[in-house]
Amino acid sequence: xxxxxxxxxxxxxxxxxxxxxxxxxxxxxxxxxxxxxxxxxxxxxxxxxxxxxxxxxxxxxxxxxxxxxxxxxxxxxxxxxxxxxxxxxxxxxxxxxxxxxxxxxxxxxxxxxxxxxxxxxxxxxxxxxxxxxxxxxxxxxxxxxxxxxxxxxxxxxxxxxxxxxxxxxxxxxxxxxxxxxxxxxxxxxxxxxxxxxxxxxxxxxxxxxxxxxxxxxxxxxxxxxxxxxxxxxxxxxxxxxxxxxxxxxxxxxxxxxxxxxxxxxxxxxxxxxxxxxxxxxxxxxxxxxxxxxxxxxxxxxxxxxxxxxxxxxxxxxxxxxxxxxxxxxxxxxxxxxxxxxxxxxxxxxxxxxxxxxxxxxxxxxxxxxxxxxxxxxxxxxxxxxxxxxxxxxxxxxxxxxxxxxxxxxxxxxxxxxxxxxxxxxxxxxxxxxxxxxxxxxxxxxxxxxxxxxxxxxxxxxxxxxxxxxxxxxxxxxxxxxxxxxxxxxxxxxxxxxxxxxxxxxxxxxxxxxxxxxxxxxxxxxxxxxxxxxxxxxxxxxxxxxxxxxxxxxxxxxxxxxxxxxxxxxxxxxxxxxxxxxxxxxxxxxxxxxxxxxxxxxxxxxxxxxxxxxxxxxxxxxx
Length: 622
Prior knowledge:
The protein is of the alpha+beta class. It contains 19 helices and 25 strands. Strand 5 (90-92) and strand 6 form a beta hairpin.
């Protein structure tokens, strides 16, 4: 399950921050990990998800506890087989200086239909980054294979693309990366059955805090991770950099770590869906000291798709395997340097409800590796996702809707951390059952740049400052107590994505629902109006369900509006798109409280337009 955690290395002398995440981690996986963390606990957790009704029950928010074992979930859960990408013909030595044959004679014939090893002709390209979308070949070396003698690689052959042929037919293509002698770049200053083994290891070996009130702040990946990495909303980010061009000037948090003397690393396992390159221009210069994209971009040329938007294999290995190998190779740098890294996986979690089962073993092995190399003893890890599963049949259920809003966040801390920083840790545990967001994780990471920020004296002074403020800040470090009066409004969470609301169902034939549904469709058609030469005008097909957003009544003392919010899920034709939105009526005037969200796939219906926001509405004319 790869929602990688944020890994922050926090050491007594050397400190690292590692961020990993399951991009689009499906919440059944999140819930499953929560279930097992509870199951294997020998102590009383802040919330016992098997008995309590609410994860969060404060004056500002009431967040329903999801029952991960209910029949509704079981209906969708299936066992998934591991992907077999085949056996690689070659392997690289531990020191990165040699290539060895990885199969015996029997395997050579079985896997590659070759009887004589000497009949295979191979070469490797040494390559490097030119741009975020193109690599450059620096050298090409032809070589032959032998069972007894390895292939000696050229010095400084850091990134390799290997191809082998037999009788003029390409039979093997692969890639290897070597970090041992690679210098860092100086271009930047600055019972659900998903993850029981990982959960058991965390419970038995690591101090951890799970945040049950963690709520997303926007619809999809980019507008959720930008707050996490910059403390800003996407629209605010535009004041600092032009996000339609290269994003080198954007104030991404790794710049602050770099300026504080940290080494930095960043990588995602699927290159066509990456945060800064999907429908965006990426970076002109390499943004971090260690940058996985260059290698993965080359490996993506050897990929085959398993369906949906993701790939099963890059050559003879899965994208996740390549990413985790890269992380392991960074271990020497993590051991001897202050280190910040962000690693994100999407290959097993995007589009698929059940595939994240396959994350359990790889993540467990990675944590064990960090434990054996003592990295865990100086590392703070944030295991997290950006949101839940946004599309598909499961998302149409009530539980699927709630899980979409509630991504995973678990902080893993060294065992000594709580004794050295008791006030900060105590507040973290309090916040396990408070409303929290990506903005708060950003503020927390800033605190980890210098651990003096979280000393007991510093924490006590900052609490006094927080209570004196006339306006509650949007970003509050998780080392400070989140005020219990915090609402989605105060946390800058749009109503449509707020899990705190108690929704009261309304019959779909009620006039207020009919009005709201028509209002939403009219708003969509206004967006489409300039594009009607390409896109069809939409009509209301049916209303799936509607509800009042009752939180504004229960917590009106914390909410500045007197209003009536109606949430509607509807379907339009042509195209049968399913949309959700909240219509707000106050003083005789109606508006959309937030953006309109689409929760089923548009596939290739929107082939005629390129704008990402327009695609979810446009049904191209045939």
